[in-house]
Structures are given as C-alpha cells and as structure tokens.
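Researcher: Quick test of sequence recovery. Tokens follow.
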C-alpha cells in the first residue's frame, strides 16, 4: 500500500486513520455527487407544476424538462473543465473542498426559489460543483495511494458510494413525501421537492470540520515544490501522445452519460407515473412508487459499482472489464424502455434494477481508468475534458434529445412517447459506446504515469 507520502508499501499494510478519513470524505463527496444529480428527475415535475403551472406532457413542460436537464449540465461541463485545469495548477485538495461547498449551498438555496428561472440558475451552480468535485476527487485519491491494487480498490469502493447516494436521495424523497405536512413550512408551503433540494447541504457539514486535516496529493505537491510540474494546457491533450485517448474517452463518456440522462433518469417521473397500475393511485402513493423506482435503479447501480470494484483487480484488460457491463446493456436497455409502458410496476422495477447495474457501473469504470490515462501535470485537465465535455455537455444533451423526440413519437400517452424516445436514445448511446470501446487504449502499466 501507499502511505500519504505516496511511496509504495506492501499491499497487506492496513490503512492509517488519516487514510480512512480521506476515503470517508471522498466517499461522502461521491455519494452526494449522485445525490444531487439524481435529485433532478424527482424534483423537476413537481417544481414545474408548482412554479410554472405547467401540465405534464405539454410542449412547454417538455421544453423546460429538457432545459433543466441540459443547461445545468452545459454549465457544469464548461466550469468543470476549468476546474480540472485548476486542480493541475493549484492542487487537488483545495479545488475539491470549494467544489463541495459550492454544490452543497446552491442545493440548499434551491429550496427557496420562487420561479423556474431561479431554479435553473441554482441547479447550474449545483452542477458546476459536482462536475469539478468528481475530477478533483479521483485525481486526489489516485495519487494518494501508490500501490496499484490498493489504488484500484480505493477508487472502486469509494465510487460505490455514488450509488449509495442514489439510494439516499430516493429514501429522502420517500421521507419528505410522507412527512412533508409535519415539517416547517418553506415559503408558506410544504412542498416535498423543496425539502429534498435543501438536504443537499449535508456533505458540507463534515467537510468544514475535517478539511484542515486533509493532506494534499503528495505526487502533485512534490513536483510543485521541486519546480518540475509542467503547466497544463488543453492543447497538450491533442498532441500525438494523448490525442487518441482524449478523443475516445470523450466519446465514450458521452455515451455513458447519454444512456443515463436520456433513458434511465426519464424513468421515475416521466414514465412510471403513467403506468396503468400507478396512474390511478392517490398522489402521495404515486410519488412513493416513484421513490421506489428510483431506489431500484440505485440498487442496480450499487450492485454494478460493487461488481466493478471486485472485478477491477481481477480483469487486467480494461476493455474486457468494460464489456462485462456494456454488452448486456446494449441488449437489454432498448427492450426494457420500449416495453416499459405496458408492464406492471411489480415487473418493471426489476428491469430498472438491471438497467441501473449495466449503466451506472460504467461511471465507476471511468473513475478507475482515467487517472492512468494522463500524467500528473495533465491528469485533472484530461479527466475533466472527457468527463465534462464528453459526459456533462454532450452526453447529458440526450435528456433534451429524448424529450424532443417524445413530441413526435407514437403512443397512447405522454409516458408511452417518452419511453419510446428513451429506448431509441439508449440504443444509440450503447451502440456508439460499444463501437468506440474497440479503440480505447489499454494503459501501458498499472502504475500512474509520472
């Protein structure tokens, strides 16, 4: 294993208390990254109905759904790319801390908005913090643990908490839907979606206390102190040495996020409420079913992330590791979404679990793969370009593509049309990602590039 100084030691050595603390803070960050992102499909419908008086399925409603999914992602992508550059210039720990504070307090402020426009603005700040945090955290963790097997385990298991964040947000939504009338009023209302957004402040609380005791990345700090840390640049990503890696990982990040935003995140609020056995339920019971749908998606994601963490140290080829999740998803995802509107929720929830497993595991894959794709001076910039330009800016536009396609899809109801559009987008995302995987470079070594 590695000590916090970055030197390798036998893998059997136990983690120190400081290293456990580092892993805990990273795990909390990953959990609330997902918590904030998966909050969107739970809050958008009730927020649009309350703030804008919009009706589900109308063109204006679908336009705002697309905007609330896509515009924050674009902002997150732009500023996330800047954040990746800043992690290479000013250090991983400092940028990580500020990114968590930005998204936590922006999420809290969302609970008090009085218009759709202000909700959009604050969700943009939330995404900015989340996009920067992912890049800073993966680079920080990777460089703190020198032993390759220990590093793979740490990255895999801490990222598994991302799916715990999805379960947390589903559980919190169930709680606020059930107990909203008993909670203190927010703006003279007891809207569950407001309480849910405000809960996003939670990860800032332990960070404020622990942050002074966290070490900087030793690999980055040593190079900075020695004056050997090269200046990062976007142009360097497209030199012959890194061009293929940059282009392929950007395309594949876009496909991973495209499947998640264009299909999976449409399921809880856009498809499930229209199921025959759900739409006749009372409003509170219907929203509880929505929470269950979100939970099953995240149960699958958690299983997928755990499998990734286990298999990452057993399957040497990164392509073969990815195919474990990519190939089944290519076959299953389009079928599930095409059939979804005609299935009872008791059956569909298990299909949702499998879709979550195949797709969300791939997000953990990138957290393990990317630190080995670029050297120290370019690690944050390279990861950020692929994750934010590919994933956040291009991939998340799949949500807008789905809602746009839904307006011209056949179907007996808005839920049918969204489901058929999501099936089409899922097929496209998985097919392009699978083809691109044949060009994904295999890391030359298990060690991080210097």
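Model:
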């Amino acid at each position: 294993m590695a000590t916090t100084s970055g030197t390798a030691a036998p893998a059997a050595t136990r983690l120190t208390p400081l290293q456990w603390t580092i892993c805990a803070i990273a795990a909390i960050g990953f959990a609330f990254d997902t918590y904030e992102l998966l909050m969107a499909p739970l809050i958008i419908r009730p927020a649009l109905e309350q703030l804008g008086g919009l009706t589900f399925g109308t063109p204006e409603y679908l336009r705002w759904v697309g905007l609330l999914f896509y515009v924050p992602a674009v902002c997150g992508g732009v500023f996330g790319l800047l954040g990746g550059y800043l992690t290479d210039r000013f250090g991983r720990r400092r940028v990580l801390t500020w990114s968590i504070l930005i998204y936590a307090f922006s999420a809290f402020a969302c609970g008090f908005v009085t218009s759709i426009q202000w909700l959009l603005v604050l969700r943009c700040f939330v995404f900015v913090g989340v996009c920067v945090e992912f890049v800073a955290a993966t680079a920080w963790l990777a460089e703190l643990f020198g032993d390759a097997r220990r590093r793979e385990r740490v990255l895999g298991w801490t990222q598994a908490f991302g799916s715990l964040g999805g379960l947390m947000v589903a559980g919190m939504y169930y709680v606020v839907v059930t107990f909203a009338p008993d909670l203190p009023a927010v703006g003279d209302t007891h809207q569950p979606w407001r309480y849910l957004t405000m809960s996003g402040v939670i990860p800032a609380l332990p960070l404020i206390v622990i942050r002074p005791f966290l070490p900087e990345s030793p690999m980055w700090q040593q190079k900075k102190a020695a004056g050997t840390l090269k200046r990062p640049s976007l142009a360097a990503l497209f030199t012959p040495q890194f061009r293929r890696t940059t282009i392929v990982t950007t395309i594949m990040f876009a496909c991973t996020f495209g499947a998640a935003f264009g299909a999976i995140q449409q399921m809880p609020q856009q498809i499930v409420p229209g199921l025959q056995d759900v739409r006749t339920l009372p409003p509170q019971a219907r929203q509880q079913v929505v929470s269950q749908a979100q939970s099953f998606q995240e149960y699958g994601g958690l299983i997928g992330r755990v499998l990734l963490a286990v298999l990452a140290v057993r399957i040497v080829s990164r392509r073969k590791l990815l195919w474990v999740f990519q190939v089944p998803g290519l076959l299953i995802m389009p079928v599930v979404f095409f059939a979804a509107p005609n299935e009872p929720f008791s059956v569909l929830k298990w299909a949702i679990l499998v879709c979550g497993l195949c797709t969300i595991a791939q997000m953990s894959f990138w957290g393990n793969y990317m630190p080995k794709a670029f050297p120290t001076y370019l690690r944050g910039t390279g990861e950020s370009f692929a994750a934010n330009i590919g994933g956040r800016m291009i991939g998340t536009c799949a949500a807008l593509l789905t809602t746009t396609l839904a307006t011209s899809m056949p179907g007996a109801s808005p839920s049918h049309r969204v489901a058929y559009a999501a099936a089409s987008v899922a097929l496209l995302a998985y097919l392009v990602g699978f083809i691109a995987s044949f060009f994904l470079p295999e890391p030359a070594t298990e060690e991080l590039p210097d």
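The domain at 17-213+223-437 is CATH 1.20.1250.20 (Growth Hormone; Chain: A;).
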